[in-house]
Amino acid sequence: MFEYKGVKISWLGHDAFKIKDDKTIYIDPFELKGGERADIILVTHEHYDHCSPKDIKKVSSPETIVVAPGSCKRLLSGLKARFVKPGDGLEVKGVKVEALPAYNVNKFRFPGQVFHPKEEGKVGYVLTVKGVKIYHAGDADLIPEMEGLRVDVALLPVSGTYVMTAEEAAEATRKLKADLAIPMHYGSIVGSERDAEKFKSLAACPVEILPKE
C-alpha cells in the first residue's frame, strides 16, 4: 500500500486498484482473493479482465455503486450501477468522477482493426479523492485527450500489445503533467516488471512501482 497526501493506493495486479480514504474505491477488480467491501467500483470496459462480475461481487455490498460504460450493462445486471460514456461527469458518494475516452490508435487486432476502438466508448477515469486527482487511463494508447489533464497521480498501462508501451506511457506523463505515476497492465496477461522499470527510467515525473497486494 502506498500513501499519497493521505490517500491510500494499492495495486491489486493487472489494471486493478484499491483507493481508500474514508471511502473504499476499486477500479477494474480482477482475480481478487477477497477484500474489504467497496463503496464505489469503477469499471473501464467490458473485457473479462476489467469487468469481472465474479470479482465485483467479492467486494460488493447492497450499498456499493458500480460505475461503468453501457457496454457492461448485461454483465452488471442485478448490481446497483450507473452507466457513463466518455465526457460524462458525476458525483458518487461525495467522490467526483469524470469518464474520459480510452482507446487505441496503433495497437491492432488485425490490419485496420484496433483492440479498443474509440467508437466503442470505453473509458478511463479521473476521480478526485480528498482533493487528490487520480487518473486511471484504462486500456489506452497515447491519445490527445491526455494533453494537459494536470493530475496528481496517473495510473498508466505500460505493457504494449493492447495498450501503451513503456516509452509511450513515459510520453503520456509529459502530456498529463502528472506529479506522480504508477505503472499497471503488466505481470498478468502481458508485460513484466521490466516494462515498469523501463517506464520509470523514462518518465517525466517520479514513478512508484507498487508491489501486488
Plain-language structure description:
By secondary structure, the protein is an alpha/beta fold. The protein has one domain (2-202): Ribonuclease Z/Hydroxyacylglutathione hydrolase-like (Metallo-beta-lactamase, Chain A, 4-Layer Sandwich), CATH 3.60.15.10. The protein is 13% helix and 31% strand. The chain is built from three helices and 15 strands. It has helices spanning 53-58, 166-176, 193-202, and strands spanning 2-4, 7-11, 17-20, 24-27, 40-42, 65-69, 81-84, 89-92, 95-101, 108-110, 113-114, 123-129, 132-136, 153-157, 180-184. A seven-stranded mixed beta sheet has the order 1-2-3-4-5-6-7, with no helix packed on it. A six-stranded mixed beta sheet has the order 8-9-12-13-14-15, with helices on one face. A two-stranded antiparallel ribbon has the order 10-11. A hairpin with a 2-residue loop joins strand 10 and strand 11 (113-114). It is globular, with a radius of gyration of 16 Å. The model has no long low-confidence stretch (mean pLDDT 96).
